[in-house]
Amino acid sequence: MTGVYLDYNASGLVRPEVLDVMTRALADNGNPSAVHAAGRRARARVETARAQVGELVGADPTAVVFNSGGTEANAQGIASALAAGCERLIVSATEHPCVAETAANAGAPVEVLPVDENGVIDLVWLAEALSRPDRAVVAIHHANNESGVIQPIAEAAALVRAAGGWLHVDAIQSAGKIAVDIRVLTLSAHKLGGPQGIGALILKEGVSGVRILHGAGQERGLRAGTENVPGIAGFGVAADCAARDLEAMGSHVVWRDDAQAKVVAAGAVIIGAAAPRLPNTLFMAVEGWDSPQQLITLDLTGVMVSAGSACSSGKVKPSKTISAMGLNILATGGVRVSGGWGTSEGDWVRFADAWVAAYNKHKTRAAERVREVA
Are the CB atoms for 223 and 79 separated by under 8 Å? Predict the structure, then answer.
């Protein structure tokens, strides 16, 4: 890929090791449910990957349920909690849409767990909400996909456990970037440098799941459909590489913070700056310069990042994360920069220099327009 790619939180570049194992799996495409030699080889690939994915998050391989990705994994996790007797849902205000929308359509009451000005969940509010007698499933992502803000999962887990509830954690952004050891969580391969379209629900010992896709008995009866063997094999290798590179991910903090200092000096506001954040993530915003304009300008310089807001049919939608933090004036001007396994220090430098130059030009043009009107 040419240019500077700093959008790993959206989708990481596929690792060479992953391409290799997937190519070999595609060339030997047996059905893992078959008993012949090709089927046994396919089954071996699936089970090897299951162990690799489990190792990344400290889970027994039998806890890993493969599926089509994070959206399905989150849906199955929430469905499993409701089937286990939870009567209501508590969902953090900055949760990914696949969790928030699944909860909204689950047929049970939903409460929104507020966050503070740094995007961190309100544990006092959570404790009060859990004090009511009806059992709750609490959905909190380990790290926010936009800001990279890391949530106090251990403290939340203690509250949920004491209340007899079920904690569901979307760890899709945090896995491979920081250490993860959580009872019930979801993963997605393409955030780790694996392929798109494959993910996993981790149901650790003593936690039962329910299937949401019906058919044959694949994945111990928890997910019907012939396994995506090449995707699963790639997922396993990506997890293995992510575990190997976990310590190296820490180097991004220095590179990120140097870039942060430059954009702040130019006038940017850092979202979640006072909270613990993923080492690879910088979420920034400015007033009066909408995200799509920033992205296009940067893309023309060869720098690929993403927005804190979505653009649909030419309309800029405010960032849900920024709005939940009470920073509405910045909600349409967010830019997320996120590195990964293929990112260098020079990539961060190039981004910061390109953004500062572009923003200075934008301010100059805006000032000229004001003078023309006056």
Answer: no
pLDDT at 110: 97
Can you tell me whether residue 26 is helix, strand or coil?
A: helix
Beta strands 136-141; 166-170: pairing state: parallel
Strand 88-92 to 110-113 pairing: parallel
Nearest residue to 66 (alpha-carbon basis) of 186, 170, 179, 172? 186
CA distance 146 to 65: 26
Determine what percent of the chain is predicted with pLDDT higher than 90: 90
Question: So what's the pLDDT on residue 372?
Answer: 76
Residue 313, Cβ density class (10 Å: 0-12 exposed, 13-18 middle, ≥19 buried): exposed
Query: pLDDT above 70 covers what percent of the chain?
Result: 97
Report the residue count for the chain: 374
Contacts of 32 (CB under 8 A, 6+ apart): 39, 42, 43, 45, 46, 226, 227, 229
Sign, CA torsion 294/322/149/286: positive
Across 348-355, average pLDDT = 98
Residue 368's identity, in one-letter code, is E
pTM, two decimals, is 0.94
Sign of CA pseudo-dihedral 43, 49, 55, 60:
negative
Q: What is the mean pLDDT of residues 221-238?
A: 96
Q: How far is CA 301 from CA 243, 350, 354, in A?
A: 33, 9, 7
The DSSP output letter for 102 is H
pLDDT at 1 over 80: no
Return d(Cα 112, Cα 234) in angstroms, integer. 36
Q: CA-to-CA distance for 320 and 331, rounded, in angstroms?
A: 8
pLDDT band at 308 (very low <50, low <70, confident <90, very high): low
Write b or e for each residue in 140-174: b if 16 or more Cβ atoms lie within 10 A of its Cβ, otherwise e. Answer: bbbbbbbbbbbbbbeebbebbeebebbbbbbbbbb
Average pLDDT, integer, range 198-224: 92
The catalytic site residues sit at 311
pLDDT of residue 313: 42
Residue 120: DSSP 8-state: -
Listed residue (202, 247, 169, 167) closest to 53, CA to CA:
202
